[in-house]
Amino acid sequence: MRVGPAFGIWYWVDCVLCRRADGDAELDRVQVWEDRLWRLTMSLGAEVLGFCYLEPKRHIPHVTDLDGEEAATFGAVLARVTSALQQETAAEVVYVYVFGEGVPHLHVHLAPHHDGDALSAQMIRGRLEERKLPSGATAITSLDFPPLPEPQQRATAERVALRLRG
Question: What is the CATH number of domain 2-113?
Answer without folding.
Answer: 3.30.428.10
